[in-house]
Design brief:
Layout: H1 10-18, H2 24-37, H3 41-44, E1 45-48, H4 50-66, E2 77-81, H5 108-115, E3 119-124, H6 158-165, E4 172-176, H7 182-187, E5 191-194, E6 214-219, H8 222-233, E7 249-252, H9 263-278, E8 282-285, H10 290-296, H11 302-316, H12 323-330, H13 337-358, E9 363-367, H14 376-381, H15 383-395, H16 397-402, E10 406-411, E11 418-423, H17 428-442
Parallel strand pairs: 2-3, 2-4, 7-8, 7-9
Antiparallel strand pairs: 1-3, 4-6, 5-6, 5-10, 9-11, 10-11
Helix pairs in contact: 2-4, 5-8, 8-17, 10-13, 11-12
């Protein structure tokens, strides 16, 4: 049976442990061995934590035998992006600036997940300080796209996505500031959840832009995403049973999201839309002109905040950074404080307009990423192409961050494409239930 464990969802593995068919220790050893023997394992995982994983798996096995499991995912190994502090293990944010940084305590979400019984496999590679949507990082490693190894994996939760897509973890934890969960999820055929800002505690998580930073799972199914969110929060997972799109009202966001869209993502979105309508959803199109206005504010919001957080470390050793990422950070260096404050004032107004315009719908839908993942070598060879593709990789996902929404991406059908559903902040339970119906309609796992 162990030969099939890598093909199972995290929730399926959890049910196997509950039934006494899967031993958490054997499961963990299988994943550790698979990572070590995989030819690209070192491009996916920055650091493994085998001693911790084995100890946690042994404890989970004992609880299972005693009938006192703590959670559906008690005993399930997970990978963690390299910006979540883990006691005694390096957490370097994918940057040479933080080389040798070893925290003394776990991030709060890791501590909560551990208390729920999860097993920490190790830390996955990411783009430098989480400030890119492509997954290109010459400073540490650029994980290969799981569906086409010549292409980028998406970022910044690059290794997190690839670890799940290649069967080197049943689930992963990433972060999302402008699309860093959803872009790699879409590029690698996964489900990705961007939670609302503040839905999960950021204590012990390396920041990028704190007013936009959020945490989210990358998973094989909506059920898995819901279960991992429950594990991270310590709260009960939403009931997904009987989820359906019958009578659901969906609004397409065409403003910005379809500008110059490539054929693959356009076909993926059309495939998902037809599936939603066939499942009983009512899909409408409306005018959302303020989305373009919000997109125009991005340069005054993300980079200034990110540079404000990291300027001391950056300017102490700028030569240690990958030049395109250094340039992105420095793009926020010279913005006057008055313009930053005014940009937030305008965004608050736009968020209110978004809320009013979308209130009559269950969710807003759009293509997760308007492009297919570009070739890795092309991005490494041409910094201008890197900058242009990077902006496009995050353009659509950033709509969710700018509007303050929680957002879920699902595989849209064609490879490396995704469809996203957006709901108001704090709506994660409803979003996951709607997502389960959408997943069923598309015919995803």
């Amino acid at each position: 049976m162990a030969a099939n464990w890598q093909d199972m969802t995290a929730s399926g593995l959890g049910r196997g442990i509950e039934a006494g068919q899967i031993d958490p220790v054997e499961l963990t050893e299988m994943y550790l061995s698979a990572i070590e023997s995989h030819p690209e394992g070192s491009r996916i995982y920055a650091r493994l934590t085998p001693e911790r994983a084995r100890a946690e798996a042994e404890a989970a096995g004992l609880r299972a035998r005693q009938g006192v499991r703590r959670h559906l995912l008690d005993g399930i190994p997970l990978s963690w992006k390299d910006l979540f502090d883990s006691a005694g293990t390096g957490t370097e944010g994918g940057s040479a600036l933080l080389k040798g940084r070893v925290p003394e305590r776990d991030a709060q979400v890791l501590a909560t997940a551990t208390a729920g019984g999860s097993v920490c496999l190790g830390k996955t590679h990411q783009t430098e300080l989480a400030f890119s949507g492509l997954g290109v990082n010459p400073s540490t490693a650029s994980p290969p796209n799981a569906l086409d190894p010549d292409r980028v994996s998406g970022g910044s939760s690059s290794g997190a996505a690839v670890s799940v897509a290649l069967g080197l973890a049943p689930g992963a934890i990433g972060s999302d500031t402008g699309g860093s969960v959803r872009a790699p999820a879409a590029f690698n055929g996964l489900v990705g959840l961007k939670t609302s800002v503040g839905a999960l505690p950021m204590e012990g998580v390396l920041p990028l832009a704190p007013r936009f930073d959020s945490i989210g799972p990358l998973a094989q199914s909506v059920e898995d995403a819901a279960a991992i969110l429950s594990l991270l929060s310590g709260r009960k997972a939403p009931d997904l049973g009987g989820a359906s799109l019958s009578g659901v009202r969906l609004l397409i966001c065409r403003e910005v999201a379809f500008d110059g869209i490539e054929d693959g993502p356009a076909e993926g979105f059309d495939h998902a839309r037809r599936a939603f309508e066939a499942a009983g959803a009512r899909v409408a199109e409306g005018e959302l002109p303020f989305v373009r206005e919000a997109a125009g504010l991005s340069s005054k919001l993300f980079a200034p905040e990110a540079y404000g957080v990291w300027k001391d470390a950056i300017e102490a050793d700028p030569g240690a950074m990958y030049p395109p990422i250094l340039e992105r950070f420095r793009g926020g260096r010279d913005l006057p404080a008055a313009e930053y404050v005014d940009a937030w004032r305008q965004l608050d107004r736009i968020r209110a307009e978004w809320t009013a315009a979308t209130a009559g719908y269950d969710a807003v839908i759009l293509p997760t990423v308007p492009i297919l993942p570009p070739l890795l070598q092309d991005m490494l060879a041409d910094e201008e192409a890197f900058a242009e593709r990077n902006q496009l990789s995050l353009r659509n996902t950033r709509i969710g961050n700018l509007t303050g929404s929680c957002s879920l991406t699902l595989p849209a059908g064609p490879a490396m494409t995704g469809v996203s559903l957006l709901m108001p902040p704090g709506s994660e339970a409803r979003l996951l239930r709607l997502g389960a119906g959408a997943e069923r309609a598309i015919g995803a796992r």
